[in-house]
TrEMBL record:
<comment type="similarity">
    <text>Belongs to the kinesin light chain family.</text>
</comment>
<dbReference type="GO" id="GO:0005737">
    <property type="term" value="C:cytoplasm"/>
</dbReference>
<feature type="repeat" description="TPR">
    <location>
        <begin position="125"/>
        <end position="158"/>
    </location>
</feature>
<keyword id="KW-0493">Microtubule</keyword>
<feature type="repeat" description="TPR">
    <location>
        <begin position="83"/>
        <end position="116"/>
    </location>
</feature>
<dbReference type="GO" id="GO:0007018">
    <property type="term" value="P:microtubule-based movement"/>
</dbReference>
<keyword id="KW-0677">Repeat</keyword>
<dbReference type="GO" id="GO:0019894">
    <property type="term" value="F:kinesin binding"/>
</dbReference>
<dbReference type="InterPro" id="IPR002151">
    <property type="entry name" value="Kinesin_light"/>
</dbReference>
<keyword id="KW-0963">Cytoplasm</keyword>
<keyword id="KW-0505">Motor protein</keyword>
<dbReference type="InterPro" id="IPR019734">
    <property type="entry name" value="TPR_rpt"/>
</dbReference>
<dbReference type="InterPro" id="IPR011990">
    <property type="entry name" value="TPR-like_helical_dom_sf"/>
</dbReference>
<keyword id="KW-0206">Cytoskeleton</keyword>
<protein>
    <submittedName>
        <fullName>Uncharacterized protein</fullName>
    </submittedName>
</protein>
<dbReference type="GO" id="GO:0005871">
    <property type="term" value="C:kinesin complex"/>
</dbReference>
<feature type="repeat" description="TPR">
    <location>
        <begin position="41"/>
        <end position="74"/>
    </location>
</feature>
Length: 239
């Protein structure tokens, strides 16, 4: 009951209300359950996600690691829940710029998802999106673009048009094109992400504001480029 209520608060981003409930649940589970019980893993994972959302990465990491250890032992190294733990840990390392630690987690998560789930499962897309971000940070532009392209194609088929995960991929892909200097493609993807986030989260949500900020920067850069462009030879006229 406590865990379910905490999970609801987590979904609603009411972190201050969720945290003590997760901690109470964890204390009960650690007292009453076996050290490698899957319910304990679920609670550890949820609390880790909460800390991740709050950017409390050092607190999230040991929880994610414990979750992974339990799921590997109880469910097996190729189970989809194990892949979720690897995804969480890989994304955490990605945020911390620990790229050498992030890559094997994300690659392994993708391999499990591709083997155990349908080709167009959202977890496959999530793995690819995170790998796209990783490859971009590593300067592997071709691999990054391929990963983002595939992730977006999967989500377009598997998710509704206004699903927040689709916005996450569109935003990440737009950021890739922005850094690569392709502002036209970046603007189109930012506009798509913004439309979803405005509908799902509202105009004042941090993710909506971030996408709006990046879109404005890209549009400004495009406008500046147009204004700075030299006149063509035909516009000068012949003297």
């Amino acid at each position: 009951m406590l865990n379910n209520l905490a999970g609801l608060y987590l979904q609603q981003r009411k972190y201050e209300q969720a945290e003590p409930l997760f901690q109470q649940t964890l204390a009960i589970y650690e007292q009453q359950l076996e050290p490698y019980h899957t319910h304990l893993a679920d609670c550890l994972s949820n609390l880790g996600v909460l800390y991740f959302y709050q950017e409390r990465y050092e607190q999230a990491e040991p929880l994610y690691q414990r979750t992974l250890a339990i799921r590997e032992q109880q469910l097996g190294p190729e189970h989809p829940a194990t892949a979720i733990s690897l995804l969480n840990l890989g994304e955490l390392y990605l945020q911390q710029k620990k790229y050498e630690q992030a890559e094997p987690c994300l690659q392994r998560a993708l391999a499990i998802c591709e083997q155990q789930l349908a080709p167009h499962h959202p977890l496959v897309a999530e793995s690819l999106r995170n790998l796209g971000t990783l490859f971009h940070e590593q300067g592997k532009s071709d691999q990054a673009e391929a990963a983002f392209t595939r992730a977006l194609a999967i989500e377009e088929q598997a998710l509704t048009a206004y699903h927040p995960d689709l916005a996450n991929t569109a935003h990440a892909f737009a950021r890739f094109y922005e850094v690569e200097g392709d502002n036209q493609k970046a603007a189109a993807l930012y506009q798509r992400a913004l439309a979803i986030r405005e509908q799902v989260y509202g105009p004042d949500h941090p993710q909506t504001l971030e996408t709006h900020k990046r879109l404005s920067a890209v549009l400004h850069a495009m406008n500046r480029t147009e204004n700075d462009a030299p006149e063509s030879a035909t516009s000068w006229g012949a003297n």
